[in-house]
Amino acid sequence: MDADIVIIGSGMGGATLAASLAPSGRRILILERGEPLRPSPLDRDVDAIFGKGVFRPDEAWLDGQDRPFNPGNYYCVGGNSKFYGAALIRYRATDFDSDHWPINYDALERDYQSAESLYQVHGDASVDPTEPLHSGAYPHPPVCDEPDMATLRDRLKRAGLHPSSIPLGVDVSKWLAAGQTTWDAYPNTCGAKMDAETCGLAQALNHKNVILRTGSSVDRLKSDPNGRVTAAVLDSGEVVTAPLFVVAAGAVQTAALLLRSANDNCPTGLANRSDQVGRNFMNHNCSAVLALHPLRRNRSIYQKTLMLNDFYQGTNSRPPLGNVQMLGKITGPILAATTWMPRWLAQMVAARSFDFYAMSEDLPNPASRVTLKNGQIKLDWQRSNWEVHVQLVKELKAVLRRVGFPIVLSRAFDRRTPSHQCGTARMGNNPALSVVNSHCRSHDHTNLFIVDASVLPTSAAVNPALTIAALALRAGRHITETEFAA
């Protein structure tokens, strides 16, 4: 055997699981297709990041009409978390009150607490009325508002809303020392964002029994007639063997790997007796909402400290609408690189804009799915719940006008923008309707686990990173108790 455990992918799920299992002393091999990000002049180069997309993969997927597009996913050590906005928010307790979830919030609370400790979250659980019960405090106080954001917070409070601090995994001083920008969508090469590499992987690699291999893309998994996964076959043809395998390649790539691994024993793909692998793909419905006052400037550098959950839970008169949080500060060059605006106009708008991120839940739908066409990934996203998102944007605009912004603009994110992809290997108690059980173990293969966003049965309406980490810690505890007990 090449290892006791092989983990495929070093993003939030794979890195966190590795950190959980590392103290066991078992030989853990992490296979990552990408390489570590190295510091470069492009790290804070707006035109390179937002205009030219230099960090995006040289890869094409097909959409539902077989049209090729370049996905916004990243392949590097730490995965997409290297570019994330570092918002580490718990799902609300009501998000688990669904027939789709095999566990409730209480079953995951201890793991949320542990994940917040591992990822050094800055937050305050006392302000947001939708915040679920915490058994302990955040490791650090919330990231401070910049002066113009503090004024915005006060305006929202006076309007009867409940602005709260976004739980963030970021060392602001260290980030700004490397460049005067926000961190949202920028690569973390200075170690200031608490991402999968900086925290989870770093902790795992403190143990000599954990090895990370980069440039190691897995083509398929092999299984025997008894239903055990026996090996991972790399693109190079190398075969890696172990008694236990974990897939954590992300919602799209995990589904593609399992489908690509079809064999005589599993003709529709590994872990796919239920025909659910690749189905129920979800991607949050999101819009950027810019609030402006022609005579008022926003001098914030990072901006991303505030969120609103006043629209999150339903009432007698309306359904749950979703979460609103600040985007990382949009600058003139970012606006010019991503819209039709000439640079001079973009500079004027961005200098006066307060930039919000409106996010609504995408609902599970078996027809929304990842498949393979002649070996190429096909992503047929069947967007759902759009009317609810339109209502969220409408109500947010009304609130922003009420608090003193006469001009409010919005723009929906298109289908090519990955807004928290999830759901393609959903967890559940019924093997006929799900891919893994509540501990992320495959129903079909007892020595196969999946620990990334693909296992989420619903998308909720908040960033999923912390929930992915918490589920990985829960899976790690289960593996330790059941596989290592002897």
From TrEMBL:
Q: Does the keyword Oxidoreductase apply?
A: yes
> What are the residue boundaries of the Glucose-methanol-choline oxidoreductase N-terminal domain, all occurrences included?
186-285
The answer to whether keyword Flavoprotein applies is yes
Domain of life per record:
Bacteria
SUPFAM superfamilies named in the record:
FAD/NAD(P)-binding domain (SSF51905)
Family annotation (InterPro entries): FAD/NAD-bd_sf (IPR036188), GMC_OxRdtase_N (IPR000172), GMC_OxRtase_C (IPR007867)
User: Keywords, A to Z?
Assistant: FAD, Flavoprotein, Oxidoreductase
Gene3D superfamilies documented for this protein: FAD/NAD(P)-binding domain
Give the Glucose-methanol-choline oxidoreductase C-terminal domain ranges: 416-472
Pfam family example for this protein?
A: NAD_binding_8
The UniProt similarity line reads: Belongs to the GMC oxidoreductase family.
Output this protein's name: GMC family oxidoreductase
Taxonomy, top ranks, is:
Bacteria, Pseudomonadati, Pseudomonadota, Alphaproteobacteria, Rhodobacterales
